[in-house]
Amino acid sequence: MIRIRGLSKRYGDFDALQGIDLDVAPGEFLVVLGPSGAGKSTLLRCINRLCEPSQGEIHIDGRRVSSDAGSLRSVRRQVAMIFQHYNVVPRLSVRKNVLTGRLGTMPSLLSWLQIFPRKDVDIAQECLRRVELAEKAELRTDTLSGGQKQRVGIARALAQQPKIILADEPVASLDPKTSRTVLRYLKQASQELGITVICNLHQIDYAREFGERIVGVSGGRIVFEGGPQGLTDEVLHRIYPGLDEGHRGQVLPPCGPESAPGVNGLMLEEAA
Ligand SMILES: Nc1ncnc2c1ncn2[C@@H]1O[C@H](COP(=O)(O)OP(=O)(O)OP(=O)(O)O)[C@@H](O)[C@H]1O
């Protein structure tokens, strides 16, 4: 379904990604694990073309992704994104936030007027039910906890009815219990709906627990590819050079700015 060959991304004279080759199967839940600055976000952003690769090719379902308008439209429709800081619009209701996942399928006048057809409202409600937030649909989103906001982020991604979800450190801002709950909702939706998920994580424990397959990235290169049982000490040292015993399996704090501004590149605060 996703085929990546020779993908490189250069920022100025810095190589953020260097010759990535990767295949992701339909319905797979793939975890990308790696330290801060390894290139995980850049990889996801090249897949949905929020970021233009310097070299290499990406194919989704056999179609090459490019920056021409038709390809971009198709990618933005098929690929949803979940962000570390949720990217919900605080003053909108939970339901309206989820409905923004439907904007790409609606006539622009209706979306501009924020008039949502019944069918879309029903889809949004079903997505909220999946993350067990149906009863909060009418609440303002800023009244929710961080974990609930991220579940809104998942529901919004599902409302897009995507083939692929790219989740960029979706639990980096959450405590361990909430993180597991959020990852469970995401994995369950992937399994039940057959959605391919690529999920960037910092946490080795969660990668082991939720990843069907794990790709370890370090210094812009893939240094490991395999099942959770393959994450041996030697492999972890390859992914996290200098990682000591005491840190193994613990949460590695993220750093760096949140780089993705909104859904499908929209600035939601401005769109609201
Ligand atoms: N727009 C940009 N301009 C210049 N350098 C960038 C840009 N975006 C990312 N980089 C650099 O590319 C490298 C990879 O960044 P990326 O955000 O992909 O890493 P990451 O593994 O997702 O890190 P983190 O886990 O901290 O989010 C970093 O060194 C980062 O500083």
Automatic annotation (TrEMBL):
Molecular function terms from GO: ABC-type phosphonate transporter activity; ATP binding; ATP hydrolysis activity
Transmembrane segments: none
Domain ABC transporter: 2-244
Pfam family, one: ABC_tran
InterPro entries from the UniProt entry: AAA+_ATPase, ABC_transporter-like_ATP-bd, ABC_transporter-like_CS, ABC_transpr_PhnC, MetN_ABC_transporter-like, P-loop_NTPase
Keyword set includes Transport: yes
Keywords annotated in UniProt: ATP-binding, Cell membrane, Membrane, Nucleotide-binding, Translocase, Transport
SMART domains: AAA
GO cellular component annotations of the record: membrane
Protein name per UniProt: Phosphonate ABC transporter ATP-binding protein
